[in-house]
Structure formats: structure tokens, C-alpha cells
Amino acid sequence: MSKLVTELHIIGENGNMFDTDMEYIIPLYQRAYAWEDKQLTQLIEDINDVAEDSNYYIGSLIVSKQFGRYEVVDGQQRLTSLYLLLNCLGIKTKPTLTFACREKSNYTLRNIEELLLENRSKIDMDRIEPGIQRGIRILSHELTKDHFDRESFMEKLAKIIVYRIEVPENTDLNRYYEIMNTRGEQLEQHDILKATLMSYLSDDSEKGLFAKIWDACSDMTGYVQMHFISKNNAVREAIFGSEWNSMPPNSWQKYKKAISGTTQETTGHKICDLIEKNFKVEDDEGYVDGDVRVRFESVIEFPYFLLHTLKVYVSLYGVTHEIATSKIVDELLDDKKLLDAFNRVVSCGITDTGRIADSKEDFARGFIICLLRTRYLFDKYIIKREYANDSADGEWSLKRLYVSGQQSKKKAYYGNSEFTRPGERPRTNDWRTKTNIMMQSALRVSYTSPKVMHWITKLLIWLSEADCKNIKNNAITKFDKVAENIAIDAVRENFFQVCSNGVYAMGVNTPHIVFNYLDYLLWNDDRNGKKKKYSDFVFEFRNSVEHWYPQNPSEGTFEQWKDGVDQFGNLCIIQRNVNSKFSNMSPEAKKSTFKDMIVKGSIKLRIMSELTEKNGDKPASLYWKERAYKAHEEEMLGHLKKACNIE
């Protein structure tokens, strides 16, 4: 790690982060302490979420060493909150945090104990700073709740890390703070990781090369090719070919030749760049269908992409932990543990050629190449959101970059990614693209947290393995099946293996992937049939599992269903923002009241609505409860069992 970066534990065996001879001073140009309920309760929740087996990064503190003390450039709100937290926990701190020219703030910090004990007679309340007093009151309230486990909290607090980062000498601090505050830019874990990996390289030109590739990959908007900017597109063509769409090379020397000798503008937001008055990010939009201008939005952010890529690297190079019983990477993709994840691989990883710790320079080179190649595959084969012209309504997209024009006048445009054999008709590719979009979007809306989007990792590993052999042969025509097998494994493990004795009654705990995979199967069957009833269906974030026949009928207007209400046949998945009355209405009332939502909703929900009809003298609700739901369940389970090869 860089000499300017220091790892600080909030509490440890030798005291706490404020047990130092160096004073932290909050300069006058910064605003007063302002954290309230939302930020402080989130701080407590973040600490409570810490796992027992690793450290947890909670933010960075940007400082400048001035006259034997640290002037806090960025991170003062979190720093002050941690100071208050330790005092509220009864942990003694040295008076090492002060505010420049803010006498009330300093007086309040020195009298926290009296405020907690409410010894108003011992303090001058007119000298108390209201913002800090409010922070003390909020933290004290959170720490004295009935369910608060102090022992567990202290164990987790010991895992919390803050990175103190010193800015270089002669930095214009006022200008730096103004820029960081205005643009919301601050050093994050991935910035520290970048500096750490670059420090493994001894040659400055190689560090520059590393930074240029990293900066291009870190911008998750658009396609990575468009982030290599140089005169006459020289760098872009050297890496991706004249059509801008070839797989980036797997040779460090080729990158040195392609980039080092050319004038390359990076997309990284360095301090010197940001200070320039005319600083701007190049427009990364392109076109489809002639004049339709489009922009693209990634389904994950860069820190998570780094974690996916690390898993790809571990898989490609067979990296294992030096302790055979230990995992080299965590299952969860936790951006708060980004540095910890990479440190474990570097410190404890071994490959066929030896320990990674003994060849950090090779790791830095190998990882940055893996990052660019994985990003190229991610852009081309993993869904994203596509927005046409100025529309705010995006759609799921799987496109590759094409180029039109000649020489310096070349422009990017976008068309469907290829999933065909050589010589197959474009129409064949169109429907393969559609099935890939539908399967991936089913996975995307099922796993809404980026921490559990393992399907992305699995697809990227499949695309990357054996020098990307699967995109060089006919295997790519089965890419939708690779994604579908991920869904099948999840449905088997989390539904069929959980339900026993033929009873499928998980109720609202039924995994979303079960509903979404079923909708995919129903859509695919319909697409291959004659009726084409569901050609308008798209996967959306339907995140609420509901009962079609309600658990609690509204105001006792019809009888409660006790035994079978949680059965799969009686369940549907809807958008969370649908009127809350939905849950208590009868099936007939839902069918008539939410007609517009149902016609655009889940395919299973549409079918349930169609089946809700009276039968003879029996009202629709009663007939649904007694017979219709069961026939529907058997039909739906039949689709799932056949696809999952369940007897």
C-alpha cells in the first residue's frame, strides 16, 4: 500500500483511532457537523452488518499534513461521527479532534460525557453546538435500544477500517475541497486499489499504461472501446482492431506497443484534470437504426465489476488459498470488502507458478489485462439498459459495437451481439439475441442486490475460459442455455429441494427466480407456438410475492383460506408499488380493479386472472380455492419440472 495511505482500525488492542499524537483539525472552509438520523442510523447498521471473518472498509479520510497536524480535507462528517460514537460507547478518546475557529463545536466535543449524563449544571448550554448535540442524542438512543447487543457490536467495530489518505504536498486544498464537494468526487476503495496495484510495478511507463487501461474500464457507461481516446483512433484500433470490435490481446507487450507510444487521453478524473476550467467527459453515445441516438447503462457499478473480474482471474489462473481449508474469495460480492478481497488473493494466493505475493508485478499486469478483456466480454454479452434519444424509459439490450466511416471520421453504432454460426441468417441471430435478453433479464430482476449477482460471474467465466474458446466456435449459439442452466440450478436447489412430499407451499418466501424462470418458459413456449399471446411480455422488477386468494380477506367479506393459501398455485409476483389493497381483495376484485397492471404483468399472473371465473353456481373465488388453483399449480409445476428434469 502507498506510503500516503494508512489503514486505521476504529478500535484495536492498542486503543482507538484517536489515540494519536497527531491532531485532526476541521478547517473553517468546511461546513459544520450536519449528520442526522438517516446517516447515523446507517452507520450503526453498517457496523452491525460486518461479518466475523474479515475487515470491513467504511470510508476514506483525506488529510493534508500541515504544521504537525492533519487538516481534514474530506471525510470530516464520518470522522466526527466516529468520534461521537466512541464516546457514546464509553470509550475514552484523546482530545485530538478540533474545529478551526469554531469554539462551540470544540466546547461540545470536550463535554460529551457531561451531555450524556445530562449534567447541565456542569456545562454552559449556551456554548453547546446544536448539530453535535443532536448527533450525540441520536447515537445514544440507537445504542440503548432493547435489541442492541453491545458485545457483538464491539466485536464488529473492531473489524472496521478507515483509510487515511494524505494528499501530495503543494496541493491547493481550497481548490481541491471545492472540486470534491461540488462534483461529489472522493477517493473510494477502488481508487486505493488502483494505487496499490500500480505500486507493484517498478517502471513508471508501465504504471502509466496500467492507469490508462484502468481508467477506461472504470467508466461503466457505454462500451469500453469508446474510452480509449487518441489521435486518429490509433490506440482504439491497436487494441480492438480496425472495426473496434476484436478481443483485446492477452499480451502485456502488445499493450505497451499499442498505448505507450501514442498520445492517449484517459477518462480518469485526476485532480489536475478536474481543476481545469474546460474539463468534461467525452460524449459516449452512439446510434442504432440510422438516426436513433442511444446511450447505455450498466447493470452493475465498477467496484462490483472488479469483484466479478477477480473471480474470473482466480478461475482462469487456478488461484487457491495457501491454507487448503480456506477460501480465496468470498461468495458474496461485497463492495465494502473490495480491498480485503484483493489483499487476500495477493497475500495468500498460489498458482501453478508459485505464490502471488512473490510476483506482485506479474499479478498487476495479469489482472489489468484480465480486467480489459472481461470488460469487453461484459459489454458485448451481458445485458444492459438502453435508452433511445432523450427517453427516460429504457429497455433490456444486448448489442455489440460496430463502426462506420473511414479513418478519422469513423463513428460508433450498435447492432445485436452475434449468437450464430458462420453463414446463418441475421434473422436467426435476432431470435437468439431475444432469448438471451429474456433469460438474462429474468436473472437480473430475480437478484436485485449486486452482492448476489453470481450469474454474471458464471457467464463471464464461461466466456473467458480457455482463451475465450466458447466465443470462437459454435458454443456461443448455446449461450442462452448456459444462462438458463444457472436459473435451473437455483430453482432446483431453492425450491424443489426445499419443498418436500409434493407440497409446494413456501408462500411469500418462494424465491423470485422460480416465478421469473417460469415466466421465461411460458414466454418461450408461446413464442414457438401460433397464438403469440405474450409477445409483449418483458421482465420488470416485480419484487413482491402475493397471494391471489388473500391470506386475510378484507373486513371478513369472504371466508379465510387456512390450509392451501400458501400453495404455489395461489401465488403471483407483482411490482411492490401496486396498491396495498391488492393483498386483501378477492380474486374477482383483483381481476377487475387491477386490469391494467395484470395485462402488463407476470405471465403466471395473467393466466391466474383468466382462470378466475365462476363455475355454475359457484362464485369465482370459491371455485378458485376449491379446484382451479390446483389445476393451475399442476400445470405450472409441470413446466418447471420438465425444464429442471425433476421426476
- Say how many strands there are: 21
- The percent range for strand residues is 5-15%
Q: Could you tell me how far the N terminus lies from the C terminus, measured between alpha carbons in angstroms?
A: 55 Å
Helix count equals 23
Radius of gyration: 29 Å
Helix content: 40-55%
Instruction: Give the assembly state of these chains.
Output: single chain
Write down the overall mean pLDDT.
88
What's the short story on this structure?
With 647 residues, the chain is of the alpha+beta class.
Can you put this structure into words, describing what you see?
The chain is of the alpha+beta class and 647 residues long. Among the domains are: 175 residues, no CATH class; 149 residues, no CATH class. It is 44% helix and 13% strand. The strands form 7 sheets. A 6-stranded mixed β-sheet has the order 1-8-5-6-4-7. It has a 4-stranded antiparallel β-sheet with strand order 11-12-16-17. Strand 16 and strand 17 form a beta hairpin. Helix 9 packs parallel to helix 15 and helix 22 packs antiparallel against helix 23. The longest helix has 25 residues. About 4% of the residues have low confidence. Pfam families: GmrSD_C (PF07510), GmrSD_N (PF03235). It comes from Bifidobacterium longum subsp. longum. This is DUF262 domain-containing protein.
Task: Please render the helix and strand layout as text.
Layout: E1 5-9, E2 11-12, E3 15-16, E4 24-26, H1 37-48, E5 56-66, E6 69-74, H2 76-88, E7 97-99, H3 103-110, H4 112-117, H5 130-143, H6 150-157, E8 160-166, H7 173-183, H8 189-199, H9 204-218, E9 229-230, H10 234-240, H11 252-260, E10 264-265, H12 271-275, E11 286-288, E12 292-297, H13 302-316, E13 320-321, H14 338-348, E14 349-351, E15 354-355, H15 360-381, E16 384-388, E17 395-397, E18 399-404, E19 411-416, H16 426-446, H17 454-468, H18 479-496, H19 512-528, E20 544-547, E21 571-574, H20 587-593, H21 595-599, H22 603-611, H23 620-644
Parallel strand pairs: 4-6, 4-7, 5-8
Antiparallel strand pairs: 1-8, 2-3, 5-6, 9-10, 11-12, 12-16, 13-14, 14-15, 16-17, 18-19, 20-21
Helix pairs in contact: 1-5, 2-5, 9-11, 9-15, 10-11, 13-14, 13-15, 13-17, 16-18, 16-19, 19-23, 22-23
InterPro entries: GmrSD_C (IPR011089), GmrSD_N (IPR004919)
Domain GmrSD restriction endonucleases C-terminal: 515-637
Protein name: DUF262 domain-containing protein
